[in-house]
Amino acid sequence: MDLMEYQGKQYFARFGIPVSAGGVADTVDEAVAHAERIGYPVVVKAQVMIGGRGKAGGIKLANTADEVRFHAGNILGLDIRGHIVRRLWIERASEIAQSPDRLNEKGEPKAEEYYASFALDRSAKKYLGMLSAEGGVEIESVADELIAKIHVDPMLGLSEEACRAWVAAANLPAPAREGAVGVLMALYRCYTEGDCELAEINPLILTTDGRVHALDAKVTLDDAAHDRHPEWADFEAATVAAGDSREALAKEKGLQYVGLEGSVGIIANGAGLAMSTVDIVKQVGGAPANFLDIGGGANAEVMVNALTVISTDPNVRAIFINIFGGITRCDEVARGIVEALGRITLSAPIVARIDGTNAAEGRAILKANESEKLIMLPDMLSAAQKAVEIAGK
Ligand code: GDP
Ligand code: MN
């Protein structure tokens, strides 16, 4: 489960990682009320499950109630690469120290923004910590030699000495080092005891008064540890309430759904086939609108649910149903698709490919029901091409 920034910060705070005081707002008035309580300047921050909000206009500094009103009004409803902003986090603005000896690309003193994270390195069977003095930008764009990496044996844990050496290896400036060690030790506890798959701070900053502080939070909780954390239920409820509506609806219907940014809606059975379907749509020059695995059954009920979720995405121009019948026979799948078509109004035409057990019977049923809303093609490649062609029109 991914957390929104404010939830990540709430989680960080439990482990003693310093974050700014703030409040959650779903309306402009709530945003102003929080700002008045917190004191100016504040930062108005879009809460969506996607990075790069700053560049997309989803993060703004405000010095007065009018400025909060203005920015909150603009950011609520903003579409950040397919994610509509429904919730804001208002926090006290931090003053970031400027480096006396490092310059940014514009020749100005560089802001003291760092990057820190823990994740699992499966091939090494260890935790991987990454730390860089070049934070505030996407870590993928930071040169590898500027990222200090540390492998931590889960059985031994992270010692303070190892942590101090790591901070030195990352070349963090002297005034930030002790503070960074404190934050990283706490981040390690959050990652391990908090059962995270990823715990990332970008940027981690040095303030003008010498404190090291988390300005952003990206946390993925390990769903396998769910039973150990009854307190995660609050996160889940808030994510469904304020998150991506497509994802919330899919969750409600018990479907495995991940929203993407393209125009070809995808329905497949089994995670592997769903991923291959995403791949083949890309391979033939299309852009998938989602990943959706309907799991084992493919009866009319499941098809109606899947098609309903996909139809709420305004970007979808074609729907590619790719089913491999195993225990679920293709004739049942075909009847499910036809029945679903009779029950809901589709936003885009369907291209269906079904194969496996009773494929011939299934295809005959689809063929008999072909229309401009339903096209049947026998193989995955030609079906993908057809769906992409329709979506591109
Ligand atoms: P992201 O763009 O989604 O990663 O959002 P972040 O929360 O990381 O914010 C993006 C950038 O906005 C940061 O790298 C900072 O440069 C800037 N920023 C965010 N909060 C503050 C703040 O309190 N004070 C200052 N000076 N800059 C901030
Ligand atoms: Mn960030």
Structural features, described:
The chain has 393 residues and is of the alpha+beta class. It folds into three domains: 21-93, ATP-grasp fold, A domain (Dna Ligase, domain 1, 2-Layer Sandwich), CATH 3.30.1490.20; 98-228, D-amino Acid Aminotransferase, Chain A, domain 1 (2-Layer Sandwich), CATH 3.30.470; 245-392, Rossmann fold. Helix content is 36%, strand content 26%. It is built from twelve helices and 20 strands. It has helices at residues 5-14, 28-38, 65-75, 160-169, 174-193, 232-242, 245-252, 271-283, 300-311, 330-343, 359-368, 380-392; strands at 22-25, 42-46, 59-62, 79-80, 83-84, 88-92, 98-103, 109-111, 113-121, 126-132, 147-152, 196-206, 212-214, 218-221, 256-259, 264-268, 290-293, 318-325, 350-356, 374-376. The strands form six sheets. Strands 9, 10, 11, 12, 13 and 14 form a six-stranded antiparallel beta sheet that branches. A hairpin with a 5-residue loop joins β7 and β8. α2 packs antiparallel against α3. The longest helix is centred in the middle third of the chain and has 20 residues, at 174-193. The chain is elongated. The mean pLDDT is 93. The structure holds guanosine-5'-diphosphate and manganese (II) ion (MN).
